[in-house]
Amino acid sequence: MSTPWILGLTGGIGSGKSAVAQHFMELGVHLVDADHAARWVVEPGKPALAKIVERFGEQVLQADGTLNRARLRELVFQDEQQRRWLESLLHPLIGQEIAQYLAKAESPYAILVSPLLVESGQHRMTQRVLVVDAPEQLQLQRTMVRDQSSEEQVKAILRVQANREERLRHADDILVNDRDLAWLNSEVERLHHFYLTLRGGQP
Known about the structure:
Blueprint: E1 5-11, H1 17-26, E2 30-33, H2 34-40, H3 47-56, H4 69-77, H5 80-103, E3 109-113, E4 128-133, H6 136-147, H7 151-160, H8 164-169, E5 173-176, H9 181-196
Helix pairs in contact: 1-9, 2-5
């Protein structure tokens, strides 16, 4: 059996990439979420967690021994050097986790979902990139409703994520999600049928 090719799926906050990912899964496509991999590599008992504690002390642990993400985020966001150290520790490990999970795929193609597909360089693990895009005003509205957050908070997140142009520059396929869910699902199905005709992600 030929090895599945890898589709990278990304999109800004509130673009609807989770809904798109969900429907691909319902269609039987093997899917790995980079956010989940990022959590797996720092679970208790994993070497990465021990290294983080060694560097920052017990203050980065919750009472139950799991990583206190909020505390760690505070520490590294104030200090560029610490942030780089953390990224150089975690990015390769996250990459390995993702690769292992993708290797288990039995569908003709597999999907790597990552909000930071472009920024983290994870797009290099894929043969094709699908960007879910939405007008910024719609992203703002959706995210404010979903996360109960203020417009300022959402705008701050939008600024950190790769700008739209940068993301779209890496896209082989763009799905503009500005209608209802039924329409979105039909677009996913259309793409899925197209992807099944591809070898190695290219026509």
